[in-house]
Amino acid sequence: MTAILTIANQKGGVGKTTTAINLAAAIAIRGKKTLLIDLDPQANSTITFFNPADIHVSMFDVLGDHRADMASAIKVTTNPLLSVAPARLALAKIEQQLAGQFDAPFKLKDALTPVLKDYDYIVIDTPPALGILTVNAMVASTHLLVPIQAAYFAIEGTDDLLETYERIRARPNPQLKVLGVVITLFDRRTNISRDVHEQIRSVFGSVLFKTRIGKNVRLEESPAYKETIMTYAPKSPGAKDYGKLALEVIHRVEEDRVARHAEDAA
Question: Which CATH architecture has domain 3-265?
Answer without folding.
Answer: 3-Layer(aba) Sandwich (3.40)
